[in-house]
Amino acid sequence: MEFVVRKTDLVKELSLVQGIVERKNSIPILANVLLEAERGGGLRISATDLDVSLRSSCPADVATPGALTLGAKKLFEIARVLPDADVRVAVGADGWASLECERVRYRMAGLPREDFPALPEAEGAAGVELPAAPLREMILRTAFAITAEDARYYLSGALLVLEPEGCVLVATDGHRLAYTRAAATIDVKEPRRVLVPRKAVHELARLIEGAESVAFEARDAHLLFRSGGRTLACKTIEGQFPAFERVIAVTGERRIELSRDALVTAVRRVSLLSSERSRAVRVGLGKGKLELSAQSPDQGEARETLVVDENGPELEIGFNAAYLLDFLGVVGTDTVWLELKDAESQGLLRPGGEPGVVDYRYVVMPMRF
Amino acid sequence: MSRTIFHLDMDAFYAAVEQRDRPELRGKPVIIGSDPKGGAGRGVVSTCSYEARRFGVRSAQSISEAWRLCPQGIYVQPDMKRYAAVSEQVMEILGTVTDLVEPVSIDEAFLDVGGSLRPFGGSAEALARALKDRVCERLQLTASVGVASCKLVAKVASDMRKPDGLVIVPAGQEAAFLAPLPVRRLWGVGPKMEERLIPLGLHTIGDLARADPARLERKLGTHGFDLQKLARGEDDRPVVPDRGEAKSLGAEHTFDADVNDADTLRRTLLDIADHVARRLRRHGLQGRTVTLKYRDEDFETLTRAETAPQPTDSGDVIFAVAWRLFQKVHGRKRVRLLGVTLSHFGAVSQLGLFAPAAAEASAAERVRDALAARFGRDAVTRASLLKSPRSRRVGWDDGPAAKDAKK
């Protein structure tokens, strides 16, 4: 095998597959990327952790077609520090790979391609087109809420719903739920629901950054996303995602608009004295003010008041500070709406200002003191 | 600065209360515990009077063993409500001496009296005598008091001259006081630890105090280091006053005959879980930690605990955890006793979106509570418990854990 590739192309594709390769892995071949020099020209680069895989490609002059695998992390480190020029990659009879770039030479031990697992292939032009920019925005606003607990596998991904007139992405850990919806014309006859695993959700956001659209296809218990010559594939999660519609349909009776910055700062300040385990802050609403407070039995208490335009009866509710900060960190607007009902019911947070392309709602269950 | 700690321990508490209230029992061997059933009883001795101790009867002994040793004894079933009321009177008297009263159980407490010595000319002995007199005068019950600079030594001292004892260990004498005593007297050394210490040639607390720390650590882990500190009379644990809150709540059941039938065990555990849950709800408590107590036919006792993220007062949830723990410890041996305790109350809890009430008692359980309140405990029960005519007869031992639960 022998080919020549631009250093910048190689670095870009290798950087994309880094997220797929698991750092801790008991199967050595999974720490490698598969490099395939194709007969008609072009280089294919693939990585997998057996659940999620990514194939990408870039232009290359192929002298001798062939394939081998090399350590993904080390190859990326090397490619990054090479001079900005053409890189010649060849495999000798001993199975070692040589990399030459101007006056730099590397020799690396590889593993044969036969050991590399087979990856699901996309089928030509099949698939549903989804708009990339709104989808990426939806991922950035929901992915943090995907549960980190493996026990609740049915929540360990985001639910993607494709409808003729829009697409929905929802994630939850059972305590809070992030919902996004973008209006779009999507080529499906009836709504389709798939659960996309956490890791694939994060990789999808990277895959479609700056892209126009992404083609989606579900086949043989796999989901495939294609964009710009790259294919992200993952296994679907089998499981029943909870009925989120009921949760987001409930709107609070008390509705206040708050400066995002003021709220973030207040939550951060006050939560310094919330108990470390629960991170609970109390939110008290009444008579034109919103009072945030926290206390920890061994450390003391903190309090901050925000002025609000609301004069209903007093209401006190507790929230996990981390859950509030997660939303405020990604909402991206100057103001936010907070809707409350009572101390036992969920709170709803939404972006303030003019409605954007994406309808975003964040539901948080309270903490009971 | 050296502290002055009292450990006050009521003498043969349950038996003494019975003898006080029933003069015909005075001077007789009184044994408080479960029904001995003519020597076939299955429970244990809670307490016995000093007269009974002369026959070799001891608390925690099986009741049938007590019967064998002392068939002429007067066997009385415990009346926990009455003892708890007397206990409250005792704690109230202790509270007149200092605010720093830490009840350890229904009949003993630590007091940090450092700030209360002035009226007694700085004499701990004078204060201790005054306290004992006050208890005796008001309640006609005797107590033994140990006085020392730390909790450990005070506790050992209170046990030295029972009943009606007073032992004062002067500051600086702690290690010398402990040295000749068997290791078993040390707090934290139970029968299991004793079995590990004896083969190492460590028979007395003094042996343990003098042992090579490196060797101890090798043989016993870091626990060895802590034990040695205690053996040297070094114990800086403070007296933590009780805030009147329950720390745990539980119940246990001793089978009439050792049981190996999975179905019976399962139903009994379910019944205990229901009982504990009902009491939790009555006290308005929810706990996060479920502890299973398991005693097999050889009297070997194991406890296993699991802590859930959500507090619960639901019999279903408690049973599910207890059953899981049970399956981990249950082997081939027959089971003598099962118990379930809930603890870790009052923590802030995060409510859930989709199953907000999963860890809480279901509506059905609450309805059952309401019916039970009007028509008695068995007005409505689980179908699975109905199958067993015996479950109706299951007697509840509210267990030692219940002692902590006040109001």
Concise structural overview:
Chain A is an alpha+beta fold.
Q: DSSP helix count of chain B?
A: 15
What is the name of the CATH architecture of the largest domain in chain B? 2-Layer Sandwich
User: Which class do the helix and strand fractions of chain B yield?
Assistant: alpha+beta
CATH classification class of the largest domain in chain B: Alpha Beta
Secondary structure tally: strands of chain A = 26
Q: What's the mean pLDDT score of chain A?
A: 91
What features would you describe in this structure?
- The complex is a heterodimer of chains A (369) and B (407).
- Helix content of chain A is 19%, strand content 43%.
- By secondary structure, chain A is of the alpha+beta class.
- The model of chain A has no long low-confidence stretch (mean pLDDT 91).
- Chain B folds into three domains: 168 residues, Reverse transcriptase/Diguanylate cyclase domain (Alpha-Beta Plaits, 2-Layer Sandwich), CATH 3.30.70; 57 residues, 5' to 3' exonuclease, C-terminal subdomain (DNA polymerase, domain 1), CATH 1.10.150; 146 residues, DNA polymerase, Y-family, little finger domain (Dna Ligase, domain 1, 2-Layer Sandwich), CATH 3.30.1490.100.
- Chain B is 37% helix and 20% strand.
- Chain B contains 15 helices and 13 strands.
- In chain B, the strands form three sheets. Chain B has a five-stranded mixed beta sheet with strand order 5-6-1-7-8. A four-stranded antiparallel beta sheet of chain B has the order 9-12-10-11, covered by helices on one side.
- In chain B, a hairpin with a 2-residue loop joins strand 5 and strand 6.
- In chain B, helix 4 packs antiparallel against helix 5 and helix 12 crosses helix 13.
- Chain B is globular.
- The two termini of chain B are 37 Å apart.
- The C terminus of chain B is likely disordered.
- Chains A and B meet through strand 26 of A and strand 13 of B.
